[in-house]
Design a protein that fits this description.
GO molecular function: hydrolase activity, acting on ester bonds
Strand content: 5-15%
Structural class: alpha/beta
Strand order of the largest sheet: 2-1-3-4-5
Distance between the termini: 37 Å
Largest sheet: 5 strands, parallel
CATH architecture: 3-Layer(aba) Sandwich
Radius of gyration: 19 Å
Helix content: 40-55%
Signal peptide: 1-24
Number of helices: 13
Oligomer: single chain
Pfam family, one: Lipase_GDSL
CATH topology: Rossmann fold
Protein name: SGNH hydrolase-type esterase domain-containing protein
Family: Belongs to the 'GDSL' lipolytic enzyme family.
Number of domains: 1
């Protein structure tokens, strides 16, 4: 998949923890929705080509296991969970080796390749966002059956929800399939369509009891490895148009965050975009102690940004936890 790095999450960790610890008290669980940036292995258990349960994925994961994470090691929700004193690895909901006792302190419903738009999930036959919500409803039923209503409601209300999704809607759907462009003649119309879907999704989570949500915007998608690789006439530089779309869409997400925080009582929704930081790392890697790669390859998933984050993440988390 094109969205194969998680740096925007890694550089939001400090923001997320500061927000959650200072304003939200104890967090009993981390609950995750989204795409490949946060999928901890759900796609292993569905018939799709969008999988990462093979080498070199997982090279830096404990015991070098390729778990289905689109990463060389753990992904950002894992580190966030550990920073809250919870388990260091958030399990995939569809993984049969885990049960509701494991999921009570953290669970991932994300599916690589999905998007806000249901048609995006159809591109490579992955879990659509509405189905992730259905899995979440099933999860709530299991919580109540095993821990009782009072404990279950406490977990649902006090958990920190992480959402990272949206890039595939543009790169795997709108810009790839002409029929979507016929339905939404301008990219701005499609952005507004996605914002409507995002609002519906967030309101549904609120109605289901979620109160603390971090919503990630999309990264500078014109700088993703595949986009740079195919930008031959641009000497493999970032595709500015895609980045402009990302900025425009993120601004609309920010507007939505403000709107919902005003309208929904007790809702604490955070705009966790780190577009600028990601762009700095991609365009000026030496500032972050890394060398620019001579070529960009998607096969090994060891992108520059992942290498930078690998060296920085433990230090950043330790600094946060010491505060």
């Amino acid at each position: 998949m094109r969205r194969m790095y998680n740096i925007e999450w890694l550089f939001c960790i400090e923001i997320l923890l500061h927000f959650s610890i200072s304003n939200c008290g104890k967090v009993p669980a981390i609950i995750v929705f989204g795409d490949s940036s946060v999928d901890s292995g759900n796609n292993n258990f569905i018939p799709t080509i969008a999988k990462s349960n093979f080498a070199p994925y997982g090279r830096d994961f404990p015991n070098g296991i390729a778990t289905g994470r689109f990463s060389n090691g753990r992904i950002a929700p894992d580190f966030i969970s550990e920073a809250f004193g919870l388990k260091p690895i958030i399990p995939a909901y569809l993984d049969p080796s885990y049960n509701i006792s494991d999921f009570a302190t953290g669970v991932c419903f994300a599916s690589a390749g999905t998007g806000y738009d249901n048609d995006t999930a159809k591109v490579v036959d992955v879990i659509p966002l509405w189905k992730e919500v259905e899995f979440y409803k099933d999860y709530q039923k299991k919580l109540r059956a095993n821990f009782g209503d009072m404990k279950a409601n406490e977990i649902i209300k006090d958990s920190l929800y992480l959402i990272s999704i949206g890039t595939n809607d543009f790169l795997e759907n709108y810009y790839t399939h002409p029929e979507r462009r016929l339905q939404h003649l301008t990219i701005q119309q499609y952005e507004d369509f996605l914002i409507g879907l995002a609002e519906k999704f967030l309101r549904e989570l609120y109605d289901l009891g979620a109160r603390k949500i971090s919503l990630s915007g999309i990264p500078p998608m014109g700088c993703l490895p595949l986009e740079r690789a195919i930008n031959i006439w641009g000497h493999h530089s970032c595709i500015d148009h895609y980045n402009d779309v990302a900025l425009e869409f993120n601004a609309k997400l920010g507007w939505l965050v403000t709107k919902l925080n005003k309208e929904l009582n007790g809702f604490q929704l955070v705009d966790a975009s780190a577009y600028d930081m990601v762009l700095q790392i991609v365009t000026n890697p030496s500032q972050f102690g890394a060398l620019a790669p001579r070529k960009c390859t998607c096969e090994n998933n060891l992108f520059l940004v992942m290498k930078v984050s690998h060296h920085m993440k433990e230090l950043r988390l330790n600094n946060i936890l010491l505060r």
